[in-house]
Amino acid sequence: MKNLRTLSFLAASLGLAACGPSSGPEVSTTADAVPAPAVASGPAPTAVPQIGLVMKTLTNPFFIEMEKGARKAEKELGVSLQVKTAAQETSIEQQIQLVDDLVAAKVAAIVIAPAESQRLVPSLQKAAAAGIKLVNIDNRLDPKAIKDAGMAPVPFVSVDNDAGAFKAGTFLASLASGPAKAAILEGIRGADNARQRMEGAKRGLLAQKGISVVASETANWKIDEAYSVTKALFAKHPDVSLLFAANDMMALGALKYLQETKKTKVKVAGYDAMSEALTEIKAGTLAATIDQQAAEQGYQGVALAMRLLKGEAVPELTLIDTRLITAAELQ
Question: Which class would CATH give 161-291?
Answer without folding.
Answer: alpha beta
